[in-house]
Amino acid sequence: MILQIFNYTIDLKKKWFEFRLKMAIREANRNARLFNKKYMVVVFSGKPLVYQKSQVKGLIKRRVFFKKGVKIEHIEKRAYYTTT
């Protein structure tokens, strides 16, 4: 019984993450069409968030979330989604 509840909660967390990821991808596409800029969906602290590419460059430059030596190419490779 406890194992079934545990599996159910894990499944809910997975579904919730997938839903948030889908909403973030929609938001990135909408913003890219509206503002004509590149956007990417990156996971920070377990949540998929939408960032403009230039914002991520600024965060790298100021070393807010990233260590020294991290480049925008590394972030683009690990991003879940990047608009064109």
Structure description:
By secondary structure, this protein is an alpha+beta fold. The protein has one domain (2-82). It has three helices and three strands, in the order αββααβ. The protein has helices at 2-35, 53-62, 72-78, and strands at 39-44, 47-52, 81-82. A three-stranded antiparallel sheet has the order 2-1-3, with helices on both faces. The longest helix is centred in the N-terminal third of the chain and has 34 residues, at 2-35. The radius of gyration is 16 Å and the shape is flat.
- Total helices: the number is 3
Number of strands: 3
- Percent helix: 55-70%
Characterize the largest beta sheet: strand count, sense, and whether it forms a barrel: 3 strands, antiparallel
Strand order of the largest sheet: 2-1-3
Poorly predicted ranges = none
